[in-house]
Amino acid sequence: MKRRWNGRTGIAIGALTLMVTLSACTSSGGKGSVGKLGREDKGTLKVAYFNEEAFFMQYGNAFQAMFPNIELEVVSTESVFDAEDPVAEMEKILAEQQPDAMYLTEEQYASLAGKGALYDLDAVVKQDEFDLDGFLPSVVELLKARGGGKLYGLSPSFASQALYYNKTLFDQNGIPYPTDGMSWDEVIQLAARFPAKKEGDDALAGLAPSMSVADSFGLIRSIGEAKGLLYADSETGTVSIASPEWKEIFQSVIDGYKSGSIVMPSDGPGKGGMVAMRSTGGSKTTVSFGGDSVSFMSGKAAMTIDGPMMMSMLDAVSSGAIRMGQSATSKDSGGMKPLNMPQEIDWDVVTIPVDPSQPDIAGGMGLDSVFSINASSENTAAAWEFLKYVNGEQLAKTGSKSSPALSARTAYKKEGNGKNVDAFYALKADTRSMLQTLPNGFAESFSKLATEQIKKVVDGTASLDDALQTLQTQGQDQLTKAKADAE
């Protein structure tokens, strides 16, 4: 549905991944440059977005105030979120709607840039002297790495992780706090120093998985990537999981799963981590977390690896803005049972664990969203003005106070109430692993297979050597099939 919108209603804080496209009836300059869009210029911006109301609240109303004669039209991109292949679905929208600019996920940006569908921004950035120096260098590096060496988009925010730790639990057990730049081996050893107990109200683990980790292979994969290891190579078509290096990582994490020093995620996304968040006004929003990440927020784990959303959740729980509970099925529970969470957790963060061979490189860094211009656009002036607005200082300043996202502009770092938020900004992105593209569906099927084998080793029904050999053999079959299906 297309219509002009003048309403001002709220949107959920969780709507962070969005799709945006534009078209404008304004003049453009020659190749490599764009014309200027004046306040009195008339035209239409055609915007593809998952939700019309959210678009105008977040961008449209303010942009229209800057350019009052530009009419905004919104075309829904909800189909992208439900599509089996989001990149292909986005390509379909481009072909049918012919937008001038796009708000893309990182994966869509990389794919479309590789297919020549995006406009090279280097010339217009220089033309307008757009301040790229104000952006975190790693964000610009990521954009160029995903663009094959060229800048095809701008990202107002980025995704990064840090190591959260519960000061109280460390103090109670006489264990020194973690520090910036620790290796994965050091963090796992630190987790093992806690008196692990798997069950009951006083359950305690040293390390809990990230909210984004939905299976027991996720932590192992992250450690391997930090060490520069690949479990599969799409170019050569080979799986190499049964190596001594991978075995050492599997053994270390599985030992933690067995002892209880590391929380082993429940099977499937969100299992064991479904929580209900009740606002002080009485309304309820249900949020599904991967695995058992709620362990850290409930004071049952000393450390966890996570992004800035965890910071916002902890602040909200501590302030009483939300109450949390595990989903319950008993009739007298009202659908939610309390987590017996402490009133407030005394926490802080340090940098995500690194590999000693490259101590300034971090895994877990990515782009929340990327704004790009269609390479075939004839209306680049309006599209470029929109990109500048969305990636400008004013929105960055506002977002630093209201959004859980990390601003790409370093002058507007997220406020952390005295916490070490620099941990999210301190390390460079691992661009090597990002250049590895696996066939569609392979990573998911391999993770499922790995999770099954890890469970067998933890349960004692299979040896690690046998599990790795199964992963090697069946994983190779999966990769071969996935590559054949993609051709």
Automatic annotation (TrEMBL):
Residues 1-24 form the signal peptide. Keywords: Signal, Sugar transport, Transport. This is Multiple sugar transport system substrate-binding protein. It comes from Cohnella phaseoli.
